[in-house]
Predict the structure.
Amino acid sequence: MINKTKLKLKQSKVDSDLLNYPLVECKWYDIVSDPSWISIKELKEMELAVCITKGHLLNQSKGITKIFGDYAEDENKDIEEIGCVTIIPNNVIINIKKIVDKG
């Protein structure tokens, strides 16, 4: 069952402060494809892949969740660019939770 979890973010526009993008773990269903010959029984037993993406939550809007894993800072320690981005349709998300920084 899909839990349509939506985390509440404080900002409504793009922000360069990393603290405004919570670190999250997102568990979601992905497509499975197999080009080999298999039996009908094998296909009936196949399931969707469950994937986990960890990173900073940019936003959740218009039916999608955007997460980034890497970022580059400018000389003021503001986020200048982001990388390792993942865009996930909200309807395939099983759950999403904040990762508590214990450091």
The CA atoms of residues 3 and 43 lie 26 Å apart.
